[in-house]
Design goal:
Number of helices: 21
Number of domains: 1
InterPro entries: H+-coupled_symporters, MFS, MFS_dom, MFS_trans_sf, Sugar_transporter_CS
Mean pLDDT: 81
CATH class: Mainly Alpha
GO molecular function: symporter activity
Radius of gyration: 22 Å
Low-confidence stretches: 1-11, 444-472
CATH superfamily: MFS general substrate transporter like domains
Distance between the termini: 13 Å
CATH architecture: Up-down Bundle
Oligomer: single chain
GO cellular component, one term: plasma membrane
Function: May be a proton symporter involved in the uptake of osmolytes such as proline and glycine betaine.
Family: Belongs to the major facilitator superfamily. Metabolite:H+ Symporter (MHS) family (TC 2.A.1.6) family.
Strand content: under 5%
Structural class: mainly alpha
Amino acid sequence: MSMQQASIPAAKPRVVSNVVKGCLGNLIEWYDWFVYASFSIYFAAEFFPAGNATVQLLSTAAVFAVGFLMRPLGGWLLGMYADRHGRRNALAVSVLLMSAGSLAIGLTPSFDTIGMMAPVILVIARLLQGLSVGGEFGSSATYLSEVATPGKRGFFSSFQYVSIIIGQLSALLVMILLQRLLTPEQMGEWGWRVPFIIGAVAGLGVMILRRTMDESEHYKMEKAREAAGLENGTKPVGSLRALMQYPKQLAAVFALAIGGTVSFYVYTTYMQKYMVNTSGIAKEDASVISFVALLLFMFLQPIAGGLSDRIGRRKIMLFFSIGGTIVTVPILTLLAETTNVFAAFGMMMLGLVFVSGYTACAAIVKAEMFPTRVRALGVGLPHALVAATFGGTAEPIALALKQAGVESTFFWYVTACIALTLVAAIMVKDPSKNSTLEADLQPADGAPSQEPAYAAVVVSAPQARDAARRRP
């Protein structure tokens, strides 16, 4: 077997199994994350002093925001952990933290029972969940990208957002089911605890499953290179310090993520409130519109991801950024003036079609920019920072501008964010044609190179695909 062939792992039958296990954890993570937002209307009074209901809801919203602020810390800590101790271990820790947070919320006695300890425990639980979600994206994106079959990395990694969307839909379905089975009084007394317990138990099950995943070949080869370097007297560079050697890639990830993150939260999270508060569509109709649109949006992910394997990531990102820059203001403007549910669905779906150009490639396009030793940190930290500063603030900015009577300014704000992504997509070379995922699969015959992987491509993506097909 030649050295080039040895550097390319065969397409394993366990690829699908590994991807499914990775996505199940991602699903549970986002289910738990959205359960908090969905059920806060029921448990707000349980954790905060009796009085004004609005103040109680604002308190739970503030705790929700704390979770967003913890995401960059999670992206940093769990990203470094994944690069140093393995993607599989980091993913197991991530889902364990989320389960612990959900269990704490579900079992904590009310304010009337334990006083101020109730909101204190709630805050601690959300801190754990914020760390978890912050670290999950980078570790999950890295793992799915690395274990995927060469030539199909875009397709397999696109299931990360499939699992995120299923998590959202699952939280919504649990809420609908409980609302039908329980009275409002029962929901307020104990029913709201059920989804958190479900999330905690499911998370523990997924953690056990994740322990059975194969570690990625990229990580194992990197550890072998690192060990060879130690034998030669070369000390490994700390993850954060090593990451700073890739400023262009970091800037590209920031810019590419801003427009996509804002658009994702606008169309998947804020849109339902926008249709009710601005368009005047009934709450029940808005819920159905959002559910069906998100369901179709989920099926668009592997289609767009698979297409990126054929025509390149850059063209898919350009589809999102050009289309989003052009249609955002018209969609939101027209949607504000209609109460027709079919027209509203069509406009929401049109926006999500373009957003798919980002979400389907969000994992792979970033993973392909960084070498193995800093890949999880390079993907996770900048994404978490963007999610906290732009994703977490999208809805408050929209509501503040609406309250100020200049709601249309928000439309242009979203457009400007997408335009920034457009500039990045134009300037960045196609990651699929300069992929570090193929370049880093080199034999461990010496110390790891300190040069950016773009400058050290040993095996091109097409060569990797051809070699993988030839392997028995």
